[in-house]
Amino acid sequence: MPLRGFLNSHAETIGRAIQAADDRFWDGLELMMQGRQWGGVYVMGYAAEIYLKCACFILDGASLSDEVDPYLNPAKSWGKSYFPGVSHEAYHSIRFWAELLCSKRKHSGRAFEPGFEALLRSCASKIYDEWWVEMRYHYATVSLAEVTELHESSTWIKDHFSELWS
């Protein structure tokens, strides 16, 4: 079966998305190590977005077998109500997903500890400054400092994934 057919025959679940985030993280690192920084930044930034998105869904009670799609519109609605100045950017905004996590935890009485929230916001901001989904249509030279910052911030999100939703 062609890959597209295989992928279309399997639901896009939270568990599969987390597996994809893990794969994209390591794909991005491999590209960076091969000197292909632009591609590495793009792929690793995507991984960070998926981790944040899945953490939001799990925080909302999703199981790993739940499909992603039903959680998107409620996330957008929450954002419009609680932080209308942050665009969801067709559900790809790093800032949006980080803000959603912070907002939902605060409103549920389980706010992040201030230092942890500051680190999350800092990492999300750094990734936001270096990555966005529309990069796929552009090219530019990426400095070692930019690559390092995105890698370190994405690694922090990956390493703290379970703490984002637990």
Can you put this structure into words, describing what you see?
The chain is mostly helical and 166 residues long. The chain has one domain: Nucleotidyltransferases  domain 2 (Four Helix Bundle (Hemerythrin (Met), subunit A)), CATH 1.20.120. The chain is built from eight helices and no strands. The radius of gyration is 16 Å and the shape is globular.
Biggest pleated-sheet summary:
none
- Counted by DSSP, the helix tally is 8
CATH superfamily: Nucleotidyltransferases  domain 2
CATH topology name:
Four Helix Bundle (Hemerythrin (Met), subunit A)
- Average of the residue pLDDT scores: 95
Helix content: 55-70%
The number of distinct structural domains comes to: 1
The CATH class designation is: Mainly Alpha
Uncertain residue ranges? none
End-to-end separation in angstroms reads: 38 Å
* Beta-strand residue percentage: under 5%
How many distinct beta strands?
0
- Helix/strand structural class: mainly alpha
